[in-house]
Design brief:
CATH topology of the largest domain: 2,3-Dihydroxybiphenyl 1,2-Dioxygenase, domain 1
Oligomer: single chain
Radius of gyration: 18 Å
CATH architecture of the largest domain: Roll
CATH class of the largest domain: Alpha Beta
Largest sheet: 4 strands, mixed
Structural class: alpha/beta
């Protein structure tokens, strides 16, 4: 087990979320489900309490801690994509599975976890700096899901 991992709070569906992530993203897996040894405030003995999983190689622990801890954009998974097809695949998987679109490449899965689906062309444009970065950034601000072709046009001016 990794010495450091991300702990993500779920109401009660950490196992379902981990299965979805494992089916959706490469280098992701549901590793273990640890069941509650006795009843607890948000569940019963035998319920999935802690779920060990990875998302794109990042070790995570899902905690079924119960309601009352809403997620915010202060935490997100950022997934880099190579092209529009990969961007569409991840975006559509999240949004099409009960999630919500947001702006600038952000979306939220049905468990309330925030995701940034970020084509590498956008990251490269920002790293280039100057007028190229400004044009790409300004184009991004008008988008929900990132349009790779539009970012490429913006980069060229």
């Amino acid at each position: 087990m990794s010495k450091n991992r991300i702990c993500v709070w779920y109401d009660k569906d950490a196992e379902a979320a981990a299965r979805f992530y494992a089916e959706t993203f490469p280098d992701s897996a549901l590793l273990a489900v640890h069941r509650a040894p006795s009843d607890y405030p948000s569940g019963k003995a035998g319920d999935a309490l802690v779920v060990d999983f990875t998302v794109a190689g990042i070790p995570c622990m899902g905690l079924n801690g119960g309601p009352g801890k809403p997620h915010s954009e202060a935490f997100s998974f950022q997934i880099s994509t190579e092209d529009q097809a990969e961007t569409d695949r991840y975006w559509n998987a999240i949004v099409g599975n009960g999630g919500q679109e947001s702006m600038c490449g952000w979306c939220k899965d049905k468990w309330g976890i925030n995701w940034q689906i970020t084509p590498r062309v956008l990251t490269d444009a920002m790293a280039a700096g100057g007028a190229e970065a400004k044009r790409a950034f300004d184009a991004m601000l008008t988008m929900r899901k990132i349009d790779v072709a539009a970012i490429e046009r913006a980069r060229r001016g």
